[in-house]
Amino acid sequence: MATATRSTSRKVAVVGVALSDCGRVDEATPYALHAQAARRALADSGLGREVIDGIASAGLGTLAPVEVAEYLGLKPRWVDSTSVGGATWEVMAAHAAEAIAAGRANTVLLVYGSTARADIKAKRRTSNLSFGARGPLQFEVPYGHSLIAKYAMAARRHMHEYGTTLEQLASVAVQARANAATNPDAMFRDPITVDDVLSGPMIADPFTKLHCCIRSDGGCAVLLAAEDYVPDCASDPVWILGAGEHVSHTTMSEWDDFTVSPAAVSGRLAFERAGVRPADIDIAQIYDAFTYMTMVTLEDLGFCAKGEGGAFVEKGRLLRDGELPTNTDGGGLSAQHPGMRGLFLLVEAVRQLRGQAGDGQVHRPDGTLPELAVASGTGGWFCSSGTVVLGR
């Protein structure tokens, strides 16, 4: 067994990924989904649970990840409970990779589980319109400035500045649903059209229902390990090549530009550290609580120029056989969205790079498997971003 060292040169790989049961899960607890996903990811890696000496978790319990570690029967010497919304998991992956490279841990388990849908159905909780009314948010919440309204305002600003159309935004949802069609774990798989999106009930102008992510139950887990462990693993490694993180604002009044997300910084850092360019990327997994998020994140990551996102997404580029296959599992718009979905992005990116995506597998134009992927998570209302570049 490898032992932790003070080396700062160890490469870090994703060696295990898995989903828990997802979609409609009425009987399980969030802790049970954590455990199910963790066991499956460990089995996927081929390693024994005794090798896990680090854990990263957020969103559950009073002392996450202490409670989750105890529930899983782990006593880690390295922990992370960074909580920055949907970007949490990409940021945690960056922290974990740095810790492993520096010898502070050998293997780190990132694990998440939520029964967001089941809890509302059973009336154990209600829907929340905002993250609270304390601190800086006290100046917005009393005026009905809900979370979704903030995304809607940003989308409207992009439409005003650059002429982005509702039809272009709707095409993001249509392509996500098409990608979900071959994913057995996706909650919604029936095809939809642009007209279906536009004619749905209004949630927050300009977003109708299908512009918004679904609400589901589910969890997932990702196991990162030092290169020393790779020979003992069951699957080929997917390497962490580079990562970046950035936070920008809490209140809308402090957001410099509604049309620019913090991915503009986290993406640049991730690509620079990985030594690759956006043009080199084969597949993208983008946090998509709303259609606008996908489009503007693609702009900010450099896949197209600022203001050209609408034209970029409307031409089928995001489909599995498109120019830039994006959210190939169906994303939060169609597959699953049990809360902080960023960890699902890493799972799907790894499966695609391994060639384990089944009927939803992406191939390069020459028929080979993709070699490079980017996963970019967004937290809050574009308050935070974490971007990770992965490669075979």
Note down, in words, how this protein is organized.
By secondary structure, the chain is α/β, with parallel strands linked by helices. It is built from 12 helices and 11 strands. Strands 3-2-4-7-1-8-11-10-9 form a 9-stranded mixed β-sheet, with helices on both faces. A hairpin with a 4-residue loop joins strand 10 and strand 11 (384-391). Helix 6 packs across helix 9 (291-301) and helix 8 packs across helix 9. The chain is globular and about 55 Å long. The chain starts with 11 loop residues before the first strand and ends with a strand.
Number of helices: 12
Uncertain stretches: 1-7
**Number of strand segments:** 11
Q: What is the arithmetic mean of pLDDT? A: 94
Largest sheet: 9 strands, mixed
